[in-house]
Amino acid sequence: MISIIANGFQLFMNYIVAIIVAIVLALALKLPLLPEKPIRFSWTKSALFPTPVFAIGILAIFYSLNVFWIYNGLLIAIIVGLFSAIFVKYLFDYVFPNPQGGSK
Predict the structure, then answer these.
(1) Mind listing the pLDDT tens digit for each residue in 29-55?
(2) Mutual angle of helices 4-28 and 74-86, in 10-degree steps
């Protein structure tokens, strides 16, 4: 078992690394930084949403299963960040299609 208190800062830094990697790769893959206006009714993908949300969620699943691999989870944070950006760019529309009557 891992002691969250002892490694809390390390886990926090791994989450930050996963978010930064996901956003940077999403921008490199030509995703817009923000969705189109009005943001509230937009279904477009962007670098700030849902890319880091997927990175945080997948990394949380790994950490809850006590999968840290090597470097205390830093390498898995980088891999999850890469995977989440690629997933949002290429597979997001197939897994989560737009709602009926929504704008594209």
Answers:
(1) 999 998 877 766 667 888 998 999 999
(2) 30
